[in-house]
Design a protein that fits this description.
Layout (H helix, E strand, L loop, with lengths): L1 E5 L6 H12 L3 E5 L4 E4 L6 E4 L2 E2 L5 E4 L6 H13 L3 E2 L3 H8 L1 H10 L7 E2 L7 H7 L5 E5 L8 E4 L2 H13 L4 E5 L7 E8 L2 E9 L14 E4 L4 H13 L4 E9 L2 E8 L5 H7 L3 H12 L11
Parallel strand pairs: 1-2, 1-6, 6-7
Antiparallel strand pairs: 3-4, 4-5, 8-11, 9-10, 9-11, 12-13, 12-15, 13-14, 15-16
Helix pairs in contact: 1-9, 2-3
């Protein structure tokens, strides 16, 4: 089978592991920088060009698109979909997940529990916005942030007002979210493939921080999850249309709360913590769903 990984940096752990596993199984796999691609949007013969030449057809595409290039990266993925390649996560699903506000609205509509979240535009709404999420302490998040960047814990009302007004002064879109104190800087990352949680780790923030992201110095270890947590993780991924997802869950007194759904979860932390071959499971999924001759997904 011919595969392509869409990534600006093929040296990253996740790309190297996926390539290694695919080649071990006899697949031909090429890492392609989506920013170096350009497209012929032609109804008769759509094509993706790369380094001066049209690319040959690939059976499957694995998107490892960074948040900073979501717009162009998903456009390139959509072009591969138009050309009949099977995407491991569709472009439309990635776009949904990358928009924090939209994804939370979709999850809420599906009845999935999450921290109380507010969103507003006018600075005149600050007081009511803070009250809406239960007052301070609260969390302020940039809608476009990732890996814990642009996430601030405001411990007092005055601090919350200052942070919100500062972000608004920069014309940044923000979410104001209930702070789940009982989580104690911990969350659960559930790795979902299809309709199954294949691995779960508990991430603990470093001392003095509340963000459990491994990129921010957090630590991780394998964890057993409940049936309810397993169900909510699978439902969250399905609601956004993702075949592969990292679903982040907080353990609150009122039950599990989905904090975020990641459309391009990193493999290094979860493979190192669990010893599981997650990259192999992802290639398994492609082999089962993108065999040559099978009908590909359609671009949307």
């Amino acid at each position: 089978m011919k595969m392509a990984i869409l990534s600006c940096d093929g040296s990253l752990y996740s790309c190297r592991r996926l390539r290694e596993v695919a080649e071990q199984r006899g697949h031909f796999i090429h890492i392609i920088d989506p920013l170096s691609c350009y497209m012929n949007i032609n109804p008769a013969s759509p094509a993706v060009h790369y380094c001066g030449e049209p690319l040959e057809h690939v059976d499957a595409v694995i998107p490892r698109i960074g948040t900073s290039i979501t717009f162009y990266g998903t456009a390139v993925l959509r072009q591969f979909e138009m050309c009949g390649s099977y995407p491991l996560n569709e472009s439309a699903a990635i776009t949904r997940a990358r928009d924090k506000l939209r994804s939370l609205q979709l999850l809420a509509r599906a009845g999935i529990n999450m921290p109380v979240t507010g969103f507003a535009s006018s600075p005149d709404d600050t007081q009511d916005l803070i009250a809406m999420v239960g007052g301070a302490p609260l969390v302020v998040k940039l809608v476009e942030g990732s890996q814990g960047i642009g996430v601030v814990l405001a411990e007092t009302r005055q601090a919350a007002e200052s942070v919100i007004d500062a972000f608004r002064g920069l014309n940044a879109h923000i979410l104001v979210q209930e702070f789940i104190k009982e989580a104690q800087g911990r969350d659960i990352r559930c790795l979902v493939i299809g309709n199954k949680v294949v691995a779960a780790i508990e991430r603990q923030a470093k001392e003095g921080d509340f963000r459990s992201n491994l990129h921010r110095g957090g630590k991780a270890h394998p964890v057993n999850i409940t049936d309810q947590e397993r169900e909510i993780a699978v439902k969250a991924a399905s609601t956004l249309g993702l075949d592969i997802a990292g679903v982040d869950i907080l353990r609150a007194h009122r039950g599990p709360l989905v904090m975020e759904v990641n459309a391009s979860p990193g493999l290094e932390g979860i493979e190192a913590s669990t010893g599981l071959n997650i990259a192999g499971m992802m290639i398994d999924w492609i082999e089962q769903h993108a065999l040559p001759g099978q009908r590909p997904k359609t671009a949307g």
